[in-house]
Structures are given as C-alpha cells and as structure tokens.
C-alpha cells in the first residue's frame, strides 16, 4: 500500500521538472514533485541565473568603455559589492517563492531524496529519515547533473570550487585557476577577471568552447587574453595541492601555476547514480536515453533535462518538459501520439538547439557548425561576414569585433546552422532558429528585409556573399 497515489511523479524540481509537473497538472492530471535540495534546481541558484547576474554588469561596463563620450563619463570599474548584492537578489539560496508557486499551482511537493523502487513506484527519503512511498502511473526523471571531477592527483584534497561556489561567491578571490575551457570556464573567466581576480584558464583541448565554429573560439580567446586572462590551451593539470592560502597546480610540462582558488569546470555528469534505476533494469550513472517523446521505458518512465541524453541547456530541458507533459496527458487519455513537429516529439533536439554563451564577445549559435554538418553527411557550404562591416554594427560599438556564419544545405537550399559572435548578439540567434526550424528557403529569406541600421543587416550580406 503506497502513502501517496498520483498520476505523475517527477523526481527533481529544477526548471525542467517543475515544467513537466505544471504542464501535466494544467491538463487535469494530479502531480507530485520530489526535491532533495532547492525548488528551482541548479539553474536558479548555481548556474544560469547567478552567472548571468554576475556577467551582465561587467559586460555593460565593458561596453561603455568602447563608446567615446560614454567611456570618459563612466570610469573606475564596477562596484563589486553592488554586483554581488544584485546577484543575491536574483539567486539567494531560498526557495520559498518557488515552493509557494508549486503549491499554489496545486502540485504536491515532497522534500527529500527520490529513488525508483520498481515499476511506477518512487520511494522518498525525507531529511528527517522518514520515508514516503509514491505510486504513479507515470514517473519522470528530472534530476539534472553534477560537475565532473577529472582524475587529477590531489583534486579531492584542495576544496576545489564547482559552479556552486563560483556563482555564489561572497568575496572575489585575488586569483582563480579554472580547469576547463568550455562554456562554464569561459563565462566564469570573463566574470571573475572583470570583477578583479587574476585568472588562469587551463584547457586540455586545442581550442576554447569546442563544439562551436573554430573562429568563435579564436575570437573569444583573443578577447579573454586582451582582458588579461592567462589562457593555456592543449595543457593538462596533472596534480594539485594546497600551499598555505594558495592552490598549486602542476601542469603536464612540469611547470606550476598558483591561485587563491581552483574552479573545476570540466563538464557535467547526469545525476542518475543514486536513483534506483537498477530496480527497473537501467544502468546507474548513465544519462537516461529517452526517445523523441522523452520516453525511456514502456510508456511509464520518462527522462528530461540534464539527466537525459538531450542537450544540457535550460531552454532545451523545458522544451522536453513541455513535450513530456503533453505525451503523458495524451497517453493517459488513450490518444495516439502525433509525429514530427506535433506536441509529442522533441524534433528541435536534432535540428535546432540554440545556445548563447554570455562572454564578451557573446557567442550565439544554433544547429550545425560547418564541420558538424559535414560529419553528419550533409552537403553544405558556409559563408561568413563581419558584423562590424554593416552600419548597425559599426554604430553599435567603435571597432565592433564580431562576425556571423551561416551553414547552408546546398541540396535543399536551407540554413542548417548559424553562429553570431560579438557584443549584444544574443537575441540575433532566434531569427536563425526560426529559419532553420521553418526550413525557410534562401530565396524566401531574400525577402526578409532587415531594418536599417541594425546588426541584422548582416543577414542580407550573408545571403549576398552566398550568391543571391
Ligand atoms: C554555471 C552554469 C551556468 C549555466 N548557464 C546556463 C544558461 O545561461 N542557459 C542555459 O540554458 N543553461 C545554462 N546552464 C545549464 C543549466 O543549468 C542546466 O541545463 C539546467 O539546470 C538543467 O535543468 P534540470 O531541471 O534538468 O536540472 P537541475 O537544474 O540540475 O535540477 C535538478 C534538480 O533535481 C534535484 N535532484 C537530483 N536528484 C534528486 C533526487 N534523487 N531526488 C530529489 N531531487 C533530486 C536537484 O536537487 C535539483 O534541484 C548552466 C550550467 C552551469 C553549471
Ligand atoms: N550560457 C550557457 O548556455 C551555459 C553556460 C554554462 C554552462 N552551460 C551548460 O552546462 C554544461 C556544463 O558546462 P561545462 O563548461 O562544465 O562543460 P563543457 O562540456 O562545455 O566544457 C568542459 C570543458 O572542459 C575541458 N576539460 C575536460 N576535462 C579537462 C581536463 N582534465 N583538463 C582540462 N580541460 C578539461 C573540455 O575540453 C571542455 O572544453 C554544458 O553542457 C553547457 O552547455 C551552458
């Protein structure tokens, strides 16, 4: 006999889990969410929100320094205490508001650690050691991810920072070593350097932000170095130790670097190790492999967000959540699922995943890179254009440094990928996302007239460069 019976139980109340529960509940199903820490998940307190709260002020300040007439009037750098206070206003570690929202929406919140206990069953261990057994028609895993810990001698002895300590920082350290030149590494390098720390970033690959167009990584590296970040590419840390107040890292060439703190930003692992997935025949510690409809097993087990094989981005997780909620509702009503581009298939996962990296320059990309498209066997041609060469770009900032690239499927005559690099390009990627998902032919895009003088005029130049 279970303590609680619901239609849907979601394990993990991050942005993704909350959305599944809400979507299903709004369409008439009863829903419960299990949360071990804070309602709102990693994104709200230790990832997207606090990191962007730290980055926006330093970005804005840097933009003023590129504008004659403003640079002279605004000087002296940002007020670090005020920046941290504003970050706290967005991301203080208090989930009462989000918990109230859940209960207001009619969704049951169970605080504790959830584990699968066989088919359609979840056992919750509360913080006081008591348990609640939940029986549900549908179980959704939305447990997110935890930082990867590379096998480096001494790493477990130096109190290295994860994204949690970095984004919740109370006092900016004099110096920071960053392990990893992916998205977390470059965003935190930008924030901490501009908040006053000396930053050394160690990346074992040949370039920063692998997975984006190579030129994006090169421009970003040049900008970080111009800011004073010490970027070490093709370098590995072999050992780390504490020496007084400092962390000392030994590099693979035998040299040593020192910093007040070490941030490990070397990727994420799905939080599926202590989840009881073995009770239903799945392997712990692996991302849960969900199909287009987010289904993992039978028609009762689903996975969404960072815990799944999908893209590890909040907006993509929330997209999967909307699909998952609608699939569960359809199945509960005995309805057939729709196909590609219905509410029941996460089609964009395969064609158009957008991402904005909030560095300076920003890197905003969607779909395939040129190399990625070729690897996928697509016949493509890519063209690029400097955003600073269109009137909107040159007016936006003196010496505007940035470019746009589109990757065109030459057989179908449609865009399959786009990248924008530069100051304030974040929102430009959405137009490209629409073009890719809508499979808008280049001939039709020719009639999509960009306003003058905006940076979007780069679209026209890209099409001309392509040959239209
Ligand atoms: C520094 C940083 C910055 C980022 N910035 C961005 C950004 O700008 N834009 C973007 O799109 N993405 C960003 N991301 C990625 C984004 O944070 C994740 O993709 C997103 O948080 C995934 O949401 P989720 O709900 O799947 O998981 P999470 O947000 O990790 O939430 C999972 C929740 O499940 C709970 N949980 C886990 N296991 C259990 C269990 N067994 N029982 C009960 N509860 C459990 C956890 O406590 C947590 O609250 C960033 C990531 C990092 C690290
Ligand atoms: N703005 C955003 O959208 C945003 C911001 C931050 C994080 N995120 C998401 O969070 C996730 C995690 O980000 P992340 O930066 O931790 O992972 P990542 O996979 O983006 O990058 C990890 C980097 O660490 C490097 N690395 C791994 N092991 C190393 C080692 N031993 N030595 C040196 N370098 C090493 C890798 O080469 C890689 O470049 C990503 O999926 C990312 O998309 C998104």
Can you describe what's shown?
By secondary structure, this protein is α/β, with parallel strands linked by helices. The chain has 3 domains: 4-40 and 95-146 and 269-348, FAD/NAD(P)-binding domain; 155-266, 3-Layer(bba) Sandwich (FAD/NAD(P)-binding domain), CATH 3.50.50; 361-466, Enolase-like, domain 1, CATH 3.30.390. The chain has helices at 15-26, 41-46, 48-64, 80-91, 96-104, 163-167, 183-194, 214-227, 314-332, 348-351, 370-375, 391-396, 429-437, 442-445, 458-466; strands spanning 4-11, 31-35, 108-111, 113-116, 121-125, 131-141, 145-147, 175-179, 198-202, 230-232, 237-243, 246-251, 256-259, 261-264, 268-270, 295-297, 301-303, 354-357, 362-367, 380-386, 403-409, 414-422. The strands form 5 sheets. Strands 1, 2, 3, 4, 5, 6, 16 and 17 form an 8-stranded mixed beta sheet that branches. α3 (48-64) runs antiparallel to α4. The N and C termini lie far apart (68 Å). 47% of the residues are buried. The mean pLDDT is 97. The site of nicotinamide-adenine-dinucleotide (NAD) has 26 residues, from α7 and β18.
């Amino acid at each position: 006999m279970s303590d609680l019976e619901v239609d849907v139980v979601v394990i993990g109340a991050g942005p993704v889990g909350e959305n599944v529960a809400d979507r299903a509940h709004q369409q008439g199903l009863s829903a419960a969410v299990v949360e071990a820490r804070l309602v709102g998940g990693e994104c709200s307190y230790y990832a997207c929100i606090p990191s962007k709260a730290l980055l926006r002020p330093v970005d804005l300040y840097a933009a003023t320094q590129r504008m004659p007439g403003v640079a002279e009037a605004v000087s002296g750098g940002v007020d670090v205490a005020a920046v941290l206070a504003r970050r706290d206003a967005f991301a203080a570690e208090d989930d009462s508001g989000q918990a109230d929202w859940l209960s207001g929406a009619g969704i049951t919140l169970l605080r504790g650690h959830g584990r699968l206990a066989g088919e359609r069953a979840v056992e919750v261990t509360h913080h006081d050691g008591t348990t609640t057994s939940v029986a549900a028609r549908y179980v959704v895993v939305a447990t997110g991810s935890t930082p990867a810990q590379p096998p480096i001698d001494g790493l477990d002895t130096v109190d290295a920072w994860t994204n949690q300590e970095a984004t919740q920082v109370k006092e900016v350290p004099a110096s920071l070593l960053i392990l990893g030149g992916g998205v977390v590494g470059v965003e935190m390098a930008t924030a901490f350097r501009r908040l006053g720390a000396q930053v050394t970033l160690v990346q074992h690959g040949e370039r920063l932000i692998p997975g984006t167009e190579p030129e994006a990584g090169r421009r970003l590296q040049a900008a970080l170095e111009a800011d004073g970040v010490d970027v070490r590419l093709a370098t590995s840390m072999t050992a780390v130790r504490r020496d007084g107040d400092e962390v000392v890292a030994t590099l693979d060439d035998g040299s040593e670097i020192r910093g007040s703190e070490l941030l490990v930003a070397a990727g994420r692992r799905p939080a599926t190790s202590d989840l009881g997935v073995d009770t239903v025949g799945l392997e712990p510690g692996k991302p849960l492999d969900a199909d287009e409809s987010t289904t993992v097993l039978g028609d009762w087990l689903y996975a969404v967000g960072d815990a799944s094989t999908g893209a590890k981005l909040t907006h993509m997780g929330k997209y999967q959540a909307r699909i998952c909620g609608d699939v569960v509702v359809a199945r509960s009503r005995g309805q057939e699922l729709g196909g590609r581009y219905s509410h029941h298939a996460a089609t964009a996962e395969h064609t158009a995943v957008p991402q904005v990296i909030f560095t300076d320059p920003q890197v905003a990309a969607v779909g395939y890179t040129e190399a990625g498209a070729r690897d996928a066997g697509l016949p493509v041609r890519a063209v690029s254009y400097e955003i600073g060469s269109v009137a909107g770009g040159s007016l936006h900032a003196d010496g505007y440094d940035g470019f746009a690239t589109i990757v065109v499927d030459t057989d179908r005559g449609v865009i399959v990928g786009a990248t924008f690099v530069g100051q304030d390009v974040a929102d430009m990627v959405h137009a490209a996302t629409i073009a890719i998902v809508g499979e808008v032919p280049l001939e039709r895009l020719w009639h999509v007239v960009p306003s003058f003088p905006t940076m979007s005029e780069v679209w026209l130049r890209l099409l001309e460069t392509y040959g239209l």
